[in-house]
Write a structure and sequence with these properties.
Elements: H1 4-10, H2 19-25, H3 28-35, H4 39-42, E1 54-58, H5 62-74, E2 78-82, H6 85-90, E3 99-103, H7 111-121, E4 127-131, E5 146-151, H8 156-169
Parallel strand pairs: 1-2, 1-3, 3-4, 4-5
Amino acid sequence: MRSLRDASATTVPRVFLSWFYIRRFETPERLRLAKRPFVTGILRPMEIEEHPHVIAVVDDDHRVLESLGELLESAGYSVRLFDSAEAFLQADAINAVDAVVSDIRMPGVDGIELQDRIAGKRPHLPVILITARSDVALDRIRKPNNRGVFLKPVDAAELIKAIRGALKEGGQAP
């Protein structure tokens, strides 16, 4: 028969990492951020707000629409996506958003005409235009609510900076 002393010496408590902690360490978000160090300069810890700013993204290219939506959500904004200017206007989202990011070249109502219609209803609502073409007639773009024109592919850091600046100019804290 074993003594009590021998029994306690042979039982070694084993500590296993739980599946939860291992999975938490290897989350795709951590891996994705580790692969893209420039993102840390764009994304900063944001104060938790009851109502984050709502940014509307209007683009007929679904890949651009989704990627801009993900970028803006990761920066702490609430995002509404529209695949055409007509969809944005029909949804009557002008009064529900704090800024608009729109493609210039779209079938039907283009981004410049959308900006003009927005200016008619809310002249100080910031509008940022994006385009894949460099031959855009910049003289058609009116200044009251335009906060910049960006070429695709859009520099993420510059776009976030422009949105923050536009929200500050409009009297809204980012």
